[in-house]
Design brief:
The protein has about 900 residues and is mainly alpha-helical. Helices cover about 70% and strands about 0% of the residues. It has a two-stranded antiparallel sheet with strand order 1-2. A two-stranded antiparallel ribbon has the order 3-4. Helix 14 (about 310-325) packs antiparallel against helix 15, helix 15 (about 330-345) packs antiparallel against helix 19 (about 405-435) and helix 30 packs across helix 31 (about 660-675). The longest helix has 30 residues, at about 405-435.
Length: about 900
Amino acid sequence: MTDDSQTDDTAEGPDREETEAIIQEIERKRSLGGLAAVAVAAVGITFSLFQMWLAAKGFVLSITLPLIGEIEFVALQLLQINAVHVTFGLVLAFLLYPASTGDGPIASRCRRLGGAVEERFGRDHPLSRAVNAVGGALRWGFVDSDLDRVTPVDLALIPLAVLSAVYFLTDYDEIQRMRALGLEAGRPIHEVFTFLDPVAGLLGPLTETSYAMVLGVVGVLLVLEATRRAISLYLMLIVAAFVVYARFGVLIPQNAAYVGVLSIPELSWASIIQNLWYNTENGVFGIPITVSVQFIYIFILFGAFLEMSGAGQWFIDLAYAATGTRKGGPAKASILASGFMGTISGSSIANTVTTGAFTIPLMKKSGYRPEFAGGVEASASSGGQILPPVMGAAAFLIVQYTATPFADVIVAAAIPAIVFFFGVWVMVHFEASRLGIGGLDASDLVDVRSHLRSGWFYLVPIVLLLYYLIVARLSVARSAWFTLIAIGALITLVAAYSDETRGRLGAVFGLLFVATLASHYVAGAGPLVAALGGGPGGMSLRAAFAATVGRLGGISIVAGVLTLATRPTLDATLLEFDEAVDDAAENTATALGRPGLSRNGLYRLGTFLGKSMDGGARTAVPVVIAVAAAGIIPGVISVSGLGPNLVALIKAVAGGSLVLLLLVTAVSSILLGMGMPTTVTYIILVSLLAPALTAFGVPELAAHLYILYFGVIADITPPVAVAAYAASGVAKSDAFQTGIEAFSLSLNKAIVPFAFVLTPGIVLLRREPNAAELEIGDKYSVLGTADLFDLAYLVPEVIVPVAGVFLGVVALAATVIGYVYTPVARVERAAFAVSSLLLMAPELAVRGALDLVGLVGVGSGGGDEVSVAIDVALRGVGLALFAALVLGNRGQGDSGLITSGTGEAESEPETA
């Protein structure tokens, strides 16, 4: 039964200010006001506009005007685009993240020094006054203890970041020349800044140093500093260590045991900086930042537009309406809602706090323990990064690194993601059964049908995205851009819709559609160009209709705006913007001295656009900084030629055991990923370990997904467990215990990767017949139509393994929760664990056992892969054991051997 003692104090969840405070505490991000907030918003909106322009026009920045035609402002190169992208990220990082909050080790030592001086000499002593004056100046210049002001050091670093971008834009010819001749061929500083000529001799070593070299050094240091602020000191130190290694790795003796393979040729600082700062293949502006420019940012913007439109709350309500009345309904609804929003936002922390502010209190009220409620939310929110179609930022990196179409990536990732959420669902069901937790009252939930009727338009962008990616097979960037236009068009139409205006809106839309169709039919151009006498000439009716359909987004936006202009105080019946939009509209209208504007439909629509672009930029900042910094590591590996030696070292350490290599990769991903974005973990480990995995015969796409999965697990792995820490703040629970619960609930996320690496059919990959002759990335391909009719392959290598992982996570749930129909004894839990392993990854069990035997000198270890026949047979053994355990457990309940009260008393979980 539900513990009534919990219901009184858990009904109310944290308000918006509390959730924002939790996020601010974890991310250490400033909450600015006044001119500083305006500056951040201006930079953020400009950043988003720049990226939207790139998505629409490509690298040629141009505009098309009636009668005049297309005016081209500038055609930028990839290196220039990447540099501008990183510069926006740096500027926002220095505005949003403080250099110090005054509670770090350096600040505390400075305070102790001041205290010691005062104690020794007295407060009025000249030395004490001098020390206090220096301390005050440092606090004024560097410290932002309240996270509410931009410090002088921030204002000093921002122009340096901008200066670098300006150099890329104005002196690209010199950069191209230096890429062939080296940085030494660049102009020295005093030739760039001619006013320094009279004092050139005072510059010392900088007199003959090229300006490009100085900017490169400053740029790398700025990226490291932004990384320290926005991500963590540990990532900054790791990246800095690789830079130092590039210069001094030559000092490692080649004949040293083990580490001798890490010895590299001597590299000059100029060569290192050139490769890390002026290169689009590696380094700061390498592949990760290219992916951020082309894919990641526009999808972050897509998520921001959906969130600000109110889709988040609509999806939460839909999840509760669909599952809220079931046994343990609040927790199941939390899984659905967090999965919906996690795949869009790609941020475990933000998703945990925003969605959890609603779901966690309801779970607690239903009877779940606070730690369990927080664990469910953290586990499901972190799983959003592996759930198609968006999958967070790392999915786009997989596309670029493996040269795999995005549609194939999301198809391959679909089954493991569904298995994960199904596994968490089963665990919360067993926990609800154990505690006797029912569902919510139907009267407290929205009706599914009416809810879908009122918010169906929130589903349209996601459906369109899937259509563009999978059916139309457009590029990722174009798919995201078209979907973004669709969101804008739908929100504008819905904002202008009401019982009063629907006829007017339909009439305006129809007139615009007909006018556009006619203008294309007569003049081959839009209505404005045709009215001014322009256009290339008439088109066929079919071509004109196709062109008009292609402009539906623009027609919808214009129709909505015109309708709103005629009814500015319209109360839209279907649309409810996110609270952040309403707050921004009220605050800006009040600041303008016209508070009534906050009720103006057009003003609220404009606020929605601005807030979405600003919010997207703020969300993108840590991602941009993270991928810029992490790109340095593969850059060093490339320029130093370390890659092949590193693969040889890893294979030697693994001793020919794939299982050991997989374990090393998993542990490395979790340790490195603690407190770091998943993208960082992925970029670093895919450079270090993915080549070794593929050398063992692991499919390239499966290897990359494997690393991604364990990078995600790091978000809910104690002792750091940032997502679980965020959930504990909402649940008001013990942070460490919440992390334990979240990790336990996500155990299937740790086993499924082993399963699909050893059995690629689970991720719908099939080995090509001539794989031995192909490149690594071409040895496997996603299943095609012909493969679905090859039953001799499909049944044993796809259907049986997929069914096995689904049943295996049920057995794992029984192991973790200790309950199915009745409590599960310790011995039975161990047996359930064995059946789970045999059902999900029998080859892991076989190879692991052979490796252990090999350690004691019997046999040679794991050896080759297990045959299909043995694999199927072992899964059959697991199925038989699982069925026997389930039937036995059910029989105990039916026979009354364990009463309900005894069951609840004896079934207090040990690990969950």
